[in-house]
Every structure is written in structure tokens, then in C-alpha cells.
Sequence to fold (542 residues):
Amino acid sequence: MNDLLIAGGIGVAFGCALECAGLGDPPKLAGQFYLRDFTVLKVMLSAMLTTMLGAFWGGRLGMFDPGAFYVPDTYLLPQLLGGLVFGLGFVLSGLCPGTSCVALASGRIEGATTMLGLFAGVLLVGLTFPAIEPFYRSTPYGSLTLQRLAGLSYGDMVALVTVVAVSVLAWIAKREARP
Amino acid sequence: MKFVRRLGISALAFGLIAPFAGAPFRTQRRGLDLDSIARAIDEGTDHVSARQLAEWIRDRRPGLRVIDVRSPAEFRNDAVPTAENVPIDQLAKSQFAPGQTIVLYSQEGAHAGQAWVMLRSLGVTQAVFVPGGLADWREEVLYPLLPANASPAERAQIEALSHYFGGSPRIGAEQGSDVASAAQIGRGSRRRGC
Amino acid sequence: MRPLRSYAEPHLTGVCLGMVLLACFALTGQGLGASGAFASVASGVMVTVSPETAMHSAYFRSYLQDGSPWIAWIVVEIIGVLVGAATSAALAGRTRLPFVRATRPSAGKLFTGVAGGTLMGIGAALARGCTSGLALSGGAMLSVGAWIFMAALFLAGFLAAPLMRRLWP
Fold:
């Protein structure tokens, strides 16, 4: 029960944050891919930096153990193909699974239609699963992290990602400051 | 925008100091704390009997994770109910949260014991192993020999446990029927999709 | 019509989001997600409508193994998202009335929305996650798969965008 209460609480905060940033509005999200509106990148990168740095330093200060945090498994080909297909769908609809819920919650019918599509897509994969299962399970690498791949330490990788992410955000800021 | 700028600079600062911060927490530390390992072995806190494991599974002990360290083929053939298959070479990469009780087992127990030491060296102190492995599981839990001099209450307990897991006790020299492999191989951890 | 409160500053909102995600990790050891909720509900529907088909597919089975798929952690989380977003929109005066002609998108637009959603459903199922669960949560934990997914996502998006200018005037 506790578990589910946490789930609900986290969800409410998540939905609130997404809506506040305007990520329930398809033209705004799609605008990212036309370099018109950088809200998507700004929110994603800021969030990722915060969590990554928070996890590292929280761990260093002994508040929790980031080594016990779940690292999604890597499946090279399915995730590569999945990402490509997902990106295509993203530009078509201007929403992603989480933000489609935000759109629906703010009364946008595009939210509902995208959610419908999501169900259809997932059902399709589920129904054809026996056929695609070999591909689905191909190229597994377990819970591979960037640092293990590069042979660096956790701290080194955090530094690297921070520099890259902040640089992208700085580039965006500069671009937007141009008249 | 000024505030955002300052945020960016502090993020950069925190990120750049990270490589010099040393290992976060204790998970990255590799090494053998020989004293604590020797103590655990001495005191017997490094292992549990198959019967104890059976009781934990039956009582749905919270945070219990049963790990089978054998190969996937052996795991598919027969395993302890609710066990997860993490072959020994993948054990080092696995994550274990502090509140969990991890019970390792293998065919006869030797590999599980070695896995226990391995995990200990990685700083995982919440694991134990089953010394007799799957063989003990069959002998003690599924097809236990009901000792002739045990009290009726004890015998009832052993029988109940055996039946719970789909086995049947042996009485005296009689062998139980030759059977059906272990029940469902479920998942012990709550891994949700994302 | 109530005046629209303008959107919050994206970097700050991102930081707040990042803290929510960190709290999620600290409390549950795992990140948050979204596409899994759709898969879970779909599995629930499947098992109600046709149990044999559901059991025949290992994909659906995986969502049916840990108790009811209707109250899976991620489903409850998504319900929270709906509630949080609805509240935020209502408080800011940003709630649209879905059946008002003027603000409703055209039928063609709605169709591409469904098509886009289907593609995302397929992509998320294959990748075992979406922008929230894989890219964001996995990315923060420096998972290689998450970064591959993210790179592919943005690549495809940027490449396809010029072909769809008409959708987004």
C-alpha cells in the first residue's frame, strides 16, 4: 500500500511539473524538432542533470546508495530501432506517453487520440510477440553503464555528462538570445 | 535568467568535482574484509538451511530474493520456487538493495558459497547461501525423511512444509514418487516495466 | 475566459522534476515511467478479453506476473500524473474545453496523432521504455541503452521533421 501511495504522489508531482512547463501542448513539443521551442531539451536536460548529480552526491554523502538504483538493461538493437520509431511517432503526434496524459488532463483531445495510438502500438507488439521475440531479446548487455563501457569511474562519467549537458543548454541560451 | 545561469554554473561545478570525490558510498569498493567474513563463517550467519529458506518463502518474508547461481539451462530444468536465475558471472553486475535478504543456492552448494564470498567482497552483506543447494532442498523440504523419533507436532510441521511445495515426505525407507519438477518459477523482485 | 498563467521557467521546472525523480529513486530504488502503464493496462484488457492469447505472448505475461495489472505501480503513477496535470492546468486556467470547435484540431491532425501514438507504442515496447522511464530515468543513471534510445529518438525526430512541416505550421 505504501508503495502505491508513493507511486501516486510521485505521479502527481510529475504531472504537475510537466504541465507547468507547458509540455501538454503538442505544438510546443513538436517545436523542439524545428528548433523553434527548446522547452523539451531544457526540461529533460535540467531534470537529468539534477537527478544524476543528486544521485552521485547523495551517495557520496551517505544519504543513499546509488549503486542500488535500477539501471535499465541495455538491448542494443531493439533500443536503437525502438528509439528511431519512437522519435518518428513523437514528431507525428507532438506528444510522448507521459505528456499525452498531461494533454488529456488539460482537456486536449489530442491527448486522448495519442493515448489510443499508444495502446494500439503496445497491443500490436504484444500480439505479434512470438514472432518478434528473438529480435526483442537480441543484443543484451545487461545493466551496462556509460562509465563501464568507457572504462571510466562513476565520477569521471558524471563530469563528462555534466559538461556536455551544460554546454548544450548554454548553446540553446545563446541561440535564443540572438535577436 | 540570472538565476538559471547560476544554476548552470553550480551544476558544472558539482559535475567537475565529481571525479575527485572518491567512490560514492561503498558499492564500488572491491576488497575482502577478511575479519568480518571469517566471523560470519564462524558464527554461521553466512548460511541458512534449505528448510529455513522454505519457511521464509512460505511466510512471504519481505525483501526476500532467492538467487539461483547456476546456468540458465539448469535453472529451466528445475529450481526453487520464486527463485531468480543470476548465473555466477552476472552476479557482480547485479544490484542489491540494503533491505533485502538474498539467499543464494546452487546444485550442491559449493558455487553458492563462492558466490557468497564474491558478494561479500563487493560489500553486499545481506546475503546468505544454502550449503546443500538444490540437493538439500529436495532432501529436506520436498521429500524429507520423517524421523521416527520426532514428536507428532514436528512431523506435522515437516509434512505441511513438504506438501506446501508440492512434495511428499518419505517414511522410513520408502521413496516418494519420482516427480514433477518444482512449481512455477516466478520472479522474486518487483521489476516494473518502464 | 480566465487569463492564461504563463508557463513556468523550463530549467527550474526541470530541476524540480529532477528532484521528484531523485526522490523516487531514493524511496523505491527505481525511476518513474509511462509507457509501462499502457502495456500493463493493455495486458489487463487482453487477459480479460482472451486469456489464451494473453498467455501465449510472453510480453503480456510479463505484465501479469506480479499481481493485478490494473493497479501496477506504474499505472497508479500515471493516474497520479493525470491528477497532477489536471490540477495544475485548472489552477492556471489552462484547461481546454475539448469540444469547442475553435480549439479542436482537424480530423487529419487527430489521425496523425493516433498514427504517431502507435509508432511510439511500438518503439517504447521494443526499447522497454519511453522518454520518462528510459531516457530520463535511465539517462540519469547513465544506462547505455537509455542514451542510445535518446540519441535515436532525437535523430529520427530531427530527420523526419522537415517532411512534416505541414503538420506544425
Q: What stands out?
A: The helical segments of chain B are 2-17, 34-43, 50-58, 72-77, 88-91, 110-121, 133-142, 152-164. The beta strands of chain B are 64-68, 83-85, 101-105, 127-129, 145-146, 170-171. DSSP finds eight helices and six strands in chain B. Chain B touches chain C at residues 3-4, 7-8, 95, 97, 186-187, 190-194 (CB under 8 Å).
